[in-house]
Specification:
single chain, elongated, 195 residues, alpha/beta, Rossmann fold
Length: 195
Amino acid sequence: MSMAKLYFHYSTMNAGKSTLLLQAAYNYQEGGMSPYLITAQMDGRAGAGRIASRIGIGMDADVFGPEDDLFAMITARQARGQVDCVFIDEAQFLSRAQVWRLAQAVDDLGVPVMCYGLRVDFRGDLFPGSAALLAWADEMREVRTICHCGRKATMVVRKGPDGQVLTDGDQVVIGGNETYQSLCRRHWREAVNDR
């Protein structure tokens, strides 16, 4: 009987999700096991097919696009050798159907799947992949970061090139510290003029 589970590690921007993913994957390798790393095709900040952390560590990964079948990707990778754990970075970019395929991989292939991603976008709305993971994950863990005031940050604002906070636009715009800032709900409301 498999004890594999679907995990969702979520937070706001710049909380260290990729660092935690890379550390966990390294621990698997160090223990003589084989992790399988996958990241979103649309986030090429670290280079195509690479998961990297702001603190300078990184590992190569396969990439998924909106149409990819993750169950099939995991099965194909298993055909080339043992897979002890699947790590998904930028899990907010998964579709609802892709999250379901990951759940099927956990159940039918007996492989644990660890997803790391954002919970909400800059408008305070759930990403589709995150909503599905919140609904279906066996275990969820919040990766905490703090607002400039010292409170727990649960929201994120997007800034334009002029540094002004944006309140509308596409849900997905790839960027780092220059584009996004993690805030507590009170300071997020202040930043977006929610009175």
